[in-house]
Design brief:
Chains A, B: This is NUDIX domain-containing protein. The structure is a homodimer. By secondary structure, chain A is of the alpha+beta class. Chain A is built from 6 helices and 9 strands, in the order αββββαβββαααββα. The N and C termini of chain A lie far apart (50 Å).
């Protein structure tokens, strides 16, 4: 990375304003056209991509910091956020700021907390920051080269999402307001990376008691109109807080 | 808390040796006589209890730090450790070190990473440290008053353990080497805090394919001798890395 006066200027602000040694990285999942995607940034002059991330300010909680960082990069608010892991290996980012001396904020050792978020991809406006030239949705099964340990962080988030899906409902925020059963199943299959039996899927999803069947099926199309569902928000929230064995 | 010269001495060592702002708290679960217990310390002169915890040294990874802290308090090695959450609220420990000035290491704002561990309670020797007068197993459903946010940390660990149990096998390390099906079911019921149907339990646990039935049933007792099982270590590890939907 080339030396940049703006980074030195920001370094001074962070020493003043932020908690040392702690950073936050967000894995933002979106679902579109049967593809599970993740929101990534590319820094100017770099080939590899990175997660939207940032630092913890002295006057905010970790969760508020994660929400702020996510909002800055995506405009998304009031989203489902889950702290899924902590990444505290030695030398995580050692060589990245080689051009700077050791007083640079960014050259500290950082322990980063991983938060994943599920968002409605169509309702999000990816926004580059001053150091990046691209901010895009990229398919999670074809990740580009990633900076530092960000590839590992995405994989860990995906595992955690899959585990969550095995015992909690998922879909709210990832699907449009109304959807068909095959569309919901397709979301599950995409996240799990495997085909599911239709009957089993129907049975398991119904036991959560989170779906409301609409009176009107979807219009248009040559075939029999498929039934439409929407989530029952209250039941959905209840199911999120329960453990199913 | 009263002022203690030893804490001031340690503060200087930590400023030198440890990463600022990051701490680790361990929720160590053990299972004994149908009770799920957690390993807690009580500081000298305090009424409330706390989790075994500590700081991250500059030359170790987060996971190594968690293992070291756990080893110091319990003598347990090579245990299952899981980072289940990050606790970064404002003012988590604000008033605790009031007697000291702000140069004290312990008075920083700390973001703490929660790790839970599952151990064989009979193989562990709880060890007090120089600041505590008690280190004991206490039942998780009758927790005493806890310092700072440690009560919340235990509850979050328990929720995470319950969720893990809904989609991964649990029992290895928590049960003796051989056990009966009712003993395994009792462990699950204790963690979940609810009764389970015997047939359903048997069916679900068998699909993991992790149990080996021994040729010899348990000896002694007036009733029909119950079948004994042990875990198939290899299958158990495989099941841990899979997602069951």
């Amino acid at each position: 990375m080339k030396k940049d006066d703006r980074i030195i200027e920001l370094s001074k602000i962070f020493w003043e304003k932020a908690v040392p040694s702690v950073s936050i990285d967000c894995v933002v999942f979106g679902f579109h056209n049967d593809s599970l995607n993740v929101l990534l940034l590319r820094m100017k002059g770099e080939e590899a991509w990175m997660l939207p991330g940032g630092y913890l300010f002295k006057d905010e909680s970790m969760e508020d910091a994660a929400r702020r960082i996510l909002y800055e990069r995506s405009g998304a608010e009031r989203i489902f956020l889950h702290a899924f892991g902590i990444f505290g290996g030695l030398n995580r980012s050692e060589s990245f700021f080689d051009a700077y001396d050791d007083t640079l904020w960014h050259k500290q050792r950082f322990v980063t907390a991983g938060y994943y978020a599920l968002v409605d991809q169509t309702a999000v406006t990816p926004a580059i920051d001053e150091f990046s030239d691209r901010c895009e949705w990229l398919p999670v099964d074809q990740l580009p080269a990633m900076l530092m340990d960000h590839g590992l962080i995405v994989q860990t988030a995906l595992t955690s999402l899959r585990e969550q899906l095995s015992h909690k409902p998922i879909g709210y925020n990832l699907l449009p307001e109304t959807f068909t059963m095959p569309e919901l199943q397709s979301l599950y299959e995409t996240i799990l990376g495997e085909q599911l039996n239709r009957g089993n899927f129907y049975r398991k999803i119904m036991r959560y008691n989170i779906l409301i069947k609409l009176d009107e099926p979807r219009k248009g199309g040559a075939h029999k109109a498929p039934n439409l569902y929407r989530f029952d928000e209250e039941q959905y929230k209840k199911a999120l807080s329960q453990v199913y064995w």
